[in-house]
Amino acid sequence: MTSHSWLMLDHEAPRYRLPDELRARDPMGGRDCGWVEQMLPFVRRFSRPGDTVFDPFAGFGTTLLAARLEDRLASGCEIDASRIDLIRERLARHGLAHGTTLLHASCDALEDSALPPFDLCLTSVPYFGCRWTGAQAASQLYQSQNYAQHLDGLRNVFHRVRTGLRDGGACIAMVENIRLGERVLPLAFDLARILGSLFAMEEERVLVYPHEGHDSESDAHTDRRHEYALVFRKRRERIDLQTTAALLDALRADGHAFTLFGSFSRWQQDPQGTVPADADIRVDGDPERLDALLRWLREHGFSVTNWGDPVAAPLHLDTYRGRHYFRADRVDANGALIRLDICYEQ
Ligand SMILES: C[S@@+](CC[C@H](N)C(=O)[O-])C[C@H]1O[C@@H](n2cnc3c(N)ncnc32)[C@H](O)[C@@H]1O
Description:
By secondary structure, the protein is an alpha/beta fold. The chain has helices at residues 20-25, 36-46, 62-69, 81-93, 147-164, 187-196, 241-253, 262-269, 287-299; strands at residues 6-8, 52-55, 73-77, 100-103, 118-124, 165-175, 178-180, 183-185, 200-208, 226-233, 259-261, 279-283, 303-306, 309-310, 325-331, 337-344.
């Protein structure tokens, strides 16, 4: 893979292309099928031969084929049964069906035993508003009724990806912002925010397809003149330990009651031990005290989120039932990160 931040994809090699007769069988005519060439550089750069590459939205098996071509094991989830059949046939035609595990499911519904760990997650995500004409399924994200539901579905899938991905592995999602009628939805940027709540961002690459766009007001634009490859990594973030300790002191001094627990508390007792990636504090669930704490944090430059979503002020705790914690992050001008996870009793 070059050191350029972009990848120019000007043609699709016929030998890798989804064969026309398989494409014709698909309810959407294969129009959401990616290119093997788009996946190959990422397979090569972010995994090694023998590794397992996982695609939670396997589609037509494009990622899986790229993985098998590079001697990786391939594993994928796909919610649409007809596409599972299509992937099997496509891989078989390449003589690469062995070494591939296909699961007809949404990965967030799978137990650990059903989804063995993997070394790289590489996918292109389902678009919102594309008028799915295939079989109906409750977790088919092409059927999302509204944008918030779509983003929630993506979050659930990548949350599960995080559990299955080995430490240090990359999670790479290909995605573009989409035009829906007169509206542009920043799907790529919203997905980056979701991934940022689960993984550490590493880089972005822009995939450029040098063809003309077409105008259509009737459906989501997925004509891919360019898209983003968002590259994230499952690793512990490095926080600024001294600034974090000073912040906890300042919180106490201003009368905010909390109990420090978890890795930061252990590290304060044993500075030679594991370096913490955040400071966990526990507070009681009194909405007014919690609101005052979050307000204090905002006034001190923190952004407060809940499962990656911004938390609106004043706090309406009922909105977050069952979610158990807030995250407060501050990045200072020298790049230092301070991260608090605030657990509250419900
Ligand atoms: C953009 S396509 C993936 C195409 C694939 N990367 C390829 O080029 O072969 C997205 C796929 O996600 C599938 N999908 C949607 N929701 C899903 C879910 N919850 N779990 C698994 N697959 C899902 C859709 O059926 C569709 O095939």
